Amino acid sequence: xxxxxxxxxxxxxxxxxxxxxxxxxxxxxxxxxxxxxxxxxxxxxxxxxxxxxxxxxxxxxxxxxxxxxxxxxxxxxxxxxxxxxxxxxxxxxxxxxxxxxxxxxxxxxxxxxxxxxxxxxxxxxxxxxxxxxxxxxxxxxxxxxxxxxxxxxxxxxxxxxxxxxxxxxxxxxxxxxxxxxxxxxxxxxxxxxxxxxxxxxxxxxxxxxxxxxxxxxxxxxxxxxxxxxxxxxxxxxx
Length: 238
Fold this sequence. Notes:
It is a single chain. By secondary structure, the protein is mainly alpha-helical. It folds into 2 domains: 161 residues, no CATH class; 60 residues. It is built from 12 helices and no strands. α4 runs antiparallel to α5, α7 packs parallel to α9 and α8 runs antiparallel to α9. The protein starts with a helix and ends with a helix.
């Protein structure tokens, strides 16, 4: 399959998350303009930062007069989970050109990671597919930011329409088919338990990072043990 056809596949596979992303992109734009950002600053953040949770946090802190260092540090902590996403994706696209891997890393989000990993586990890694998925979300996020900037107060709250449920439902749909072996199932359950427990005792979004790091570490240990157990019969026969 040609690169262009693979990019198209990734782009189209991500259309399923557009209904959940677009309303929040518009609300972000309204929030940014209300906080004092100009149209170009609002759009520039969507094009350069390209991270919904961080953008909402940044404009809220900007509006309250927070110090620039505090804004940068807070958004960096929120986006730290992207290190885990990139590390997981790297194992599938490590043979791709450096410039392509850098571009994929720049645009990688929670949603496009879910789309890409589901494809990778079923058909093998392909950086061009991930690029297409990234471009799809990049396009709708930038477009919704422009629309929100133009329509302003006419944009309703997505949560009031129940659109905030699209994100968790989409991730559940992506995750369930991947729970085919014991390691993945254990990691998913452990991540859910840790995130809920951490959310009850820690403020902010620390539960996301904590669950991701701990569950991933346990998953890596279990996967290594499973690999060694599979190698032992081969070594004995040889």
